[in-house]
Amino acid sequence: MSGTTRGGAGSRSVKRFPLYLRVLREMELNGDTYASGAVVAKALSFDPIVVRKDFAKTGVCGKPRLGFPLYDLIDAIEKFVGWQTRTDAVLAGAGRLGSALIGYPGFKEQGFQIVAAFDVKPNKNQTINGVPVYPVSQLCERVKKKKVTLGILTVPDEHAQDVADAMIAGGVRGIWNFTPVRLKVPEDVIVKREDLAASLALLSYRLHQDEDA
User: Fold this and answer.
1) What is the pTM of this model?
2) Domain extents for the chain?
3) How far apart are alpha carbons 147 and 127 in whole angstroms?
4) Could you name the CATH architecture of 9-80?
5) Is the pLDDT assigned to residue 171 strictly greater than 80?
């Protein structure tokens, strides 16, 4: 059986929250103390009703003519998506894509910390942006030791299932899968698949459709 991300309207709201935070933090830098749902909606080209409903899920109450208290709203959204509690992750496949993900500074802002990377034949004492790289044969053991619950998969397709199995055996309960492989995982394991080739194909298709119009 394959584990999947929990879907539905709730997951769609969660996907919007990082976009809200980006706008709210810009407002904070501008010295604003209140955030109007209509203003945030306009900045993101969203329906104002959708934004107000999303904000209501945080428990923060708005004030007539003023909007939502900005600092309280930012704090509540960060708590809602779990970014105020650090989540440690491991990454398997320290090639170009894996190295780029390790070097992405935005993860720390979102409460994620890649604490170890794994590759088939890492160089001795190899690190990438300060993150140690170990042989993939040590993955299960080190995941158990560090009590990591999130794994990032950027390995070649033919190794994806075996490496995912090692992650799960070590205690990982969520896998961010950058391979096109549909992993077979237990029901209690969540998999979020990022199919880069499919996304690029869709983008290319839409561009060509516009050109032909």
Assistant:
1) 0.70
2) 9-80, 87-198
3) 21
4) Orthogonal Bundle (1.10)
5) yes
